[in-house]
From TrEMBL:
Keywords assigned: Cell wall, Cell wall biogenesis/degradation, Hydrolase, Secreted
Record's function text: Hydrolyzes acetyl esters in homogalacturonan regions of pectin. In type I primary cell wall, galacturonic acid residues of pectin can be acetylated at the O-2 and O-3 positions. Decreasing the degree of acetylation of pectin gels in vitro alters their physical properties.
Protein name, per record: Pectin acetylesterase
Superkingdom assignment: Eukaryota
Main localization, broad class: secreted
EC number of the protein: 3.1.1.-
Entry keyword annotation includes Secreted: yes
Enzyme type, top EC level: hydrolase
Protein family (similarity comment): Belongs to the pectinacetylesterase family.
Length: 332
């Protein structure tokens, strides 16, 4: 909650660093509710009373922005990173409903495509966490009803892979196939590796043995399988699925746009997103498998992520970004 934030990458106002969106009005929503702006409940025991009001925070922010210019936007992009990327999936169609019918409204989820994947001990660590989170914060009531009515376990609609086909607003998925947060917390959480066999691999890819690399390749295959329908059938969708070890790429200038930025088919993330948003060309890019991509920065965390799933989403530097084109009533 620092007072000042550096707006870089997709939020930069420098045309040479952010050629397609540099002159847009930009709003950054601070994230603090722990359920991607989707909770609406209270929890009480003998000592505590806790209110979870992410959904109401989301609604209040949008209603505050509408008379300041958002309500007359001609073009808008809702984006976010990590838990903010998940929020983009969860709130995309709702965001569209607030804006004028003739506006071009689209959404982008960066590092928010969290997989419903078993960990290396064959437990559904992330599914259990999400199910408990949805229950604690009363999230189910705010999930897409078409999705929840289609599943025997409606809480699973908190996972983008189940909700995606019900999103009608054009959507762009930006994710690495070897997302480091998912690697450390979904595929190999500390609870699944109590003896630390994966510790060196987590900190240094060169230390991963052949079996560990194959496990990581399996995770990539499952991510691409979960995206297969979107790739094949979504005419308005876009994607950039690279083979880097990173988490969040749209807000960092190094990974968004630059001479040494990651590329797929010689296209940067900024170029891929711009091509998609402005309908210049079809923009669905999928990288070859690790280690073929020499443009990756492979941002491996220097320390391991703590084994405290209860604070999983709160630990992310997960901001939800709202972008509105220049020319509306107020410059944010």
């Amino acid at each position: 909650m620092s007072k000042y934030e550096v707006f870089s990458g997709i939020l930069s106002n420098n045309a040479s660093l952010n050629p397609d969106f540099y002159n847009w009005n930009r709003v950054k929503l601070r994230y603090c509710d722990g359920a991607s702006f989707a909770g609406d409940s209270k929890f009480q025991n003998e000592t505590s009373l806790i209110y979870f009001r992410g959904q109401k925070i989301w609604e209040a922010i949008i209603l505050d922005l509408l008379p300041k210019g958002l309500g007359s936007a001609r073009e808008a992009l809702l984006s976010g990173c990590s838990a903010g990327g998940l929020a983009s999936f969860l709130h995309c169609d709702n965001f569209t409903n607030y804006l004028p019918k003739n506006a071009s409204v689209k959404c982008l989820g960066d590092a928010g495509f969290f997989l419903d994947e078993k960990d290396i001990s064959l437990n559904h660590t992330m599914r259990t966490f999400y199910t408990n989170l949805v229950s604690l914060q009363g999230v189910e009531q705010n999930l897409d009803t078409n999705c929840t009515s289609s599943l025997n376990t409606p809480q699973l609609c908190f996972f983008p892979q189940y909700a995606l086909k019900f999103i009608t607003t054009p959507f762009f998925i930006l994710n690495t196939a070897y997302d480091t947060f998912q690697f450390h917390n979904i595929l190999v959480p500390n609870s699944a590796d109590p003896d630390g066999h994966w510790n060196r691999c987590k900190q240094d890819l060169a230390a991963c043995d052949a079996s560990q690399i194959e496990t990581l390749q399996g995770f990539r295959r499952d991510m691409l399988l979960a995206l297969r329908g979107f790739l094949k059938y979504s005419e308005s969708g876009g994607m950039f699925i690279n083979s880097c070890f990173a988490h969040c790429q749209s807000e960092s200038q190094d990974t968004w746009f630059g001479v040494d930025a990651p590329r797929i088919h010689n296209k940067t993330i900024a170029e891929a997103v711009g091509d998609w948003y402005f309908s210049r060309r079809v923009s669905k890019e999928i990288d070859c498998a690790y280690p073929c991509d020499s443009t990756c920065h492979n941002l491996i965390p220097s320390t391991q992520v703590p084994d405290k799933n209860q604070s999983l989403l709160k630990r992310q530097s997960a901001s939800l970004k709202l972008l509105q084109i220049l020319g509306c009533l107020v410059a944010f």
